[in-house]
Prior knowledge:
With 243 residues, the protein is an all-alpha fold. Helices cover 61% and strands 2% of the residues.
Amino acid sequence: MPLPAKAFQRWLSGVAPDTSTADVCRVSGVKRTTLAQQMVRGKVAETTVVSISRAYGINPVAALATFEPYTDLASSAIPPTDKELVSQIATVDLLRAVIVRTAPSGSAGKGTPGLSPPPHATSVKNWVDAIDDGELRHRVSAATGVAPQNYSAQLTANRLAPELALATSRAAGVGLAGGLVAAGLVTEAEAGWPAGARQAALDRLSDGDLTALAGERLQALGKTLRRQEQDQEQTERIWENLV
Length: 243
């Protein structure tokens, strides 16, 4: 849900008083034309607030919490669950962990590379699946008015509007910033996740659970790739018929 332009102007005057819009855009990397268009429409994107917050040394989650749709973020102190943390580990990192654990001693190479930061290719859907009790999608749909098929479409596209991310967290009873991390709006640190939390959650997985999870990820990836190949073949047939 884009933020009201008037509320944004009040916030910005407190963050960067006596600073021109041109200077704010230059420092934050937000295009002047983009900000101007948002102001004219009366709706400022959450990404704009995040970019400006970072530029001025303000935690983006705390900044978003000053706006009416996101005030709950200020009081959310629920830490991420292990399932949430593991959902934000890329498939390639899971596979690397399987190799390291199962390889003969000394054959896996020296050291273990650090985990790549979220988001990853399926971070949004993985996060929702990690907190879903089987009825979560229906509760989110009922609370937001978003049709289940439209909600699912966002998950498939690996994106989730910030207001839907918060609604999903509320419906699941988990920390409110988790969905913002999965969607790539804020970082782990900005969301208050402890340093090394994802690695620690990964280390707590048994070899069996880790291998099973990696297998599920690979199976899902295989389905996606096959669907893409089929779409490509269909597109090529259409072009062949048009030529």
